[in-house]
Amino acid sequence: MLKLISILLTNGIVLFMLISCHNKTGNSKSTVNLEYENSIDSLNSYKMDISHFINSIEPGETIVEEKQMQGEEFITRENENIKVRFLLKDSCSKDGFLKTEIINNTNDTIIYISNTFLHYRESNNSWIPLVYPDNYVKNDLGYLIPPHESVKIRFFLPSQEEYPKGKYKLQLLFRNASKSIDYYIDKIFVSTKSN
């Protein structure tokens, strides 16, 4: 009973924070905001048409690492119960958002925490984060995915001066409802075109 009250209290605080953040950012015309993702005004400062880049994406493997504290040490293991699929044929891909379907085949509700897009640089064997616009505010936190269900989430692909062809990844972080397990997800993809 105490655990249930603790979870409800935690979820209430998170919901309050999300509502507060929404009220602070929701009316800003200079902010790219996921709630206004179809608004042409919010994306006008990013003139680059990235639809050719998104249309050139070939999805690759999904790597999921589950990290859990056991005693005084972290246990890391692979997890095949969470899947990420790109929905590339969706017309919304033309506005700078990459639509995905996240499938949760675990026995626990998972909560979306964060995302980053990265490009692989062969010259020094490293992953370089794509730069988000200065006025971009991520307002897409708090997706809950119940056990054995899926949710469609659109992630803003930051506009770049150029998108070299090559390897990219969408890096995601999810946490289970009891906050005992973190899921680090890398969805690899390749772009066959450059601009």
What does this molecule look like?
This is Lipoprotein. It comes from Bacteroides xylanisolvens. Helix content is 17%, strand content 42%. By secondary structure, the protein is α+β, with helices and mostly antiparallel strands. It has one domain (2-191). The strands form 2 sheets. Strands 1, 2, 5, 6, 7, 9 and 10 form a 7-stranded antiparallel sheet that branches. A 3-stranded antiparallel sheet has the order 3-4-8, with no helix packed on it. The chain is globular, with a radius of gyration of 18 Å. The termini are far apart. Residues 21-48 have low confidence and may be disordered.
Principal-axis shape: globular
What is the beta-strand fraction?
35-45%
Overall mean pLDDT stands at 77
Rg measurement, Å: 18 Å
How would a textbook summarize the main sheet? 7 strands, antiparallel
Tally of individual helices: 3
Q: Count of DSSP E strands?
A: 10
Helix-residue proportion: 10-25%
Gist of the model:
This is Lipoprotein. The chain is an alpha+beta fold.
Topology summary:
Layout: H1 2-25, H2 40-43, H3 51-55, E1 57-70, E2 73-78, E3 82-86, E4 97-104, E5 110-121, E6 126-129, E7 144-145, E8 149-156, E9 166-176, E10 181-191
Antiparallel strand pairs: 1-2, 1-10, 3-4, 4-8, 5-6, 5-7, 5-9, 9-10
Protein name: Lipoprotein
Organism: Bacteroides xylanisolvens
